[in-house]
Amino acid sequence: MKVPLLDLKAQYEPIKNEINKAIFDVVENQNFILGETVKRFETKIANFIGTKHAIGVSSGSDALLISLMALDLKQSDEIITTPYSFFATAGAISRLGAKPVFAEIDEKTFNLDANEIENKITSKTKAILPVHLFGQIAEMDKILEIAEKYNLKIIEDAAQAIGSEFKNGKQAGTFGTFGCFSFYPSKNLGCFGDAGLVTTNDDELAEKIKILRSHGSKPKYYNKFIGGNFRIDAIQSAVLDVKLNYLENWTKKRQENAKTYDELFKATKLTEKITLPYTCKGNKHIFNQYVICLEERDKLMEFLKLNGIGSEIYYPVTFNNQECFAYLGYKQGDFPKSEKCAKTSLAIPVYPELTLEMQEMVVGKIKEFFSRW
Ligand SMILES: Cc1ncc(COP(=O)(O)O)c(C=O)c1O
């Protein structure tokens, strides 16, 4: 038996007819750019997330970029974010010429440690960009307090966190000026290519995002801003519109799978060797990834691969150690907790269609690895 990290075919198979029909409807009506299909999806997902506006864009990376563009970032502006995330988080800031300023994470949750933010604030700080990594919301109560105290904007990188809730019941993407989501195929709500979403409760900024996603022109060919082509495809919206009906159910299955892993690991006493994911009290973690930490990570990954089990390192290099960010002047060792996670973290399969038998095999093989090690 093989256990891949993700099995998109298993997700597609039972809803194939519905999805194919939705795609075919777009093909039949030939309205590929924006239009009714996109609007329908945007209304539905805004209701689901709980924001006034949800604007479909071309990717999660572009959701971050266009949100920062809407805030009119200047070259001297600084944005505080985590050093431990997917590249796009910090890349979006740098691409606009602003400066990413990193603050250490809480290694239990892998998210920004709110206590590390305040001493990074300078007169140039414009915003805080927390990431809800692996599907758990960052410490938004404390982050909101800091943002209010220093009059800073918040842009949430909620790329991995659709449907996750903070302990106060609010969903990812509803806290900041903007919430940025990715529909990359491996996300809990994934499309058939690239797409993303920006959420906001601000009417004016929502309008600005809509203008920016079509080159900044309104009316057409009269450019108010310098935007770009950041539009979501109607075909992707059609796929997502169908998949959104299943998201809650898929999330429940991911949570059940996470619980099963927790129990299996505890029963085998493997918890002496590996650290399990930690969910803060009251939070709804949606487990885009189930990430364990262990010293022997690289050897275990190799062993799992030899045994037909998929796993992945998210992320092997922290931003302070990325070659392209050398100009920021950080050095190795500046963020020991993040750097430790980069060396020890391993995502194992947690997708909704995973069976108990598969999970038992994963845990069994990890046990076997340690008995040989
Ligand atoms: C935390 C994070 N931010 C941003 C992105 C960028 O999203 P996309 O791949 O849709 O551009 C991703 C997705 O890979 C992500 O995981």
Tell me about this structure.
The protein has 373 residues and is α/β, with parallel strands linked by helices. The chain has two domains: 231 residues, Aspartate Aminotransferase, domain 2 (3-Layer(aba) Sandwich), CATH 3.40.640; 126 residues, Aspartate Aminotransferase, domain 1. Strands 1-9-8-7-6-2-3 form a seven-stranded mixed beta sheet, with helices on both faces. Helix 2 runs antiparallel to helix 8, helix 4 packs parallel to helix 5 and helix 4 packs across helix 7. It is globular and about 70 Å long.
In CATH, the homologous superfamily of the largest domain goes by the name: Type I PLP-dependent aspartate aminotransferase-like (Major domain)
Structural class category: alpha/beta
> Percent helix among the residues?
25-40%
Q: Mind telling me the CATH class of the largest domain?
A: Alpha Beta
Please report which band the strand proportion falls in: under 5%, 5-15%, 15-25%, 25-35%, 35-45% or over 45%.
Answer: 5-15%
* Average pLDDT score: 97
Task: List ligands, each type once.
Answer: pyridoxal-5'-phosphate
Report the strand count. 11
The number of domains: 2
Radius of gyration: 21 Å
Largest sheet: number of strands, sense, barrel closure = 7 strands, mixed
Question: What is the CATH topology of the largest domain?
Answer: Aspartate Aminotransferase, domain 2
| Lateral strand order in the biggest sheet | 1-9-8-7-6-2-3
Named at the architecture level, the CATH assignment of the largest domain is: 3-Layer(aba) Sandwich
Question: Whole-Å distance between the termini?
Answer: 23 Å
